[in-house]
Amino acid sequence: MIDLKLFCKEMPKCEFNVRWEACIGRSGLRSLEEHRRVIGKPELTTEQRKLLWAYGKPRDMKDLTFDHNMADMIDLYCTEHDQDSDRLYQRVITVDIIKYFYADNVVYLELHVKPRTSKELSPELFLRKIIQAISFAKLSHDNITIKVLLIAEVEESIEKVREVIDLLLIFGKTHRNQNSPDGEIIHGVEIIFANVNDDDMRQLKKMVEYVRQESDLVIVFNLAKVCNNANLLYNILLLRPDRLCNVEILSQNENKIDEHVLVDRLLAMKLPIGDDDA
Hints:
Layout: H1 4-10, E1 13-19, H2 26-38, H3 46-52, H4 66-77, H5 83-103, E2 106-113, H6 123-138, E3 145-153, H7 158-171, E4 186-192, H8 198-214, E5 218-222, H9 230-238, E6 243-245, H10 256-269
Helix pairs in contact: 2-5, 5-6, 7-8, 9-10
């Protein structure tokens, strides 16, 4: 009889939607707690352990408030003026994620990372440290391809999205810079949509077109925060993303006429879609 569990474990896999900020396992927790002891910080509380989810399995925190939880994670790792701590937590989390999926025979891993500012790191330096951590992890995990998609949240502001797009074109491989040292890792952008006005949509359209003009980087649209608005959904689809994720809203549309219009649009675009990512 075939051992299905073993068969599934040994089967090569691809993971397209792994949130970097939501992942830490037991080994990462041990490293973190040892580091906190060394620098004289108190032990983690039960709630802090729940936040870090240190039970050996990465999880998706898409239903939680990103900035609150990520800020808490950074505070858990870092002292007030300790840039080495910043580097440590980025390396620990990154290596932990890669080890976890490598052990499950994942051959292609796509990390979704939101560039952010910590006490000692700018978004650009934060991203550079993530890239360095991936390069470090690949020294002992060479049979896995690892790519990074930058996360841009429309809900924050159009300017924040523009900053992420600027970072994408600095680090990613563009038509003008095919030899970017980080271009093999930086793969594209995930734009998390929310309800936007016409002016914001025009600016987003220009940004998406500019990315396409300058590069072949992947553009993923996340529809998790979009309300039931057929016109907005249709306008979003007109921007022709390469992939969609968190598309439950497309099956929740109560107006059947609008739903047919949206489905026809999806079929015309031949877009891969899925509950998480495709």
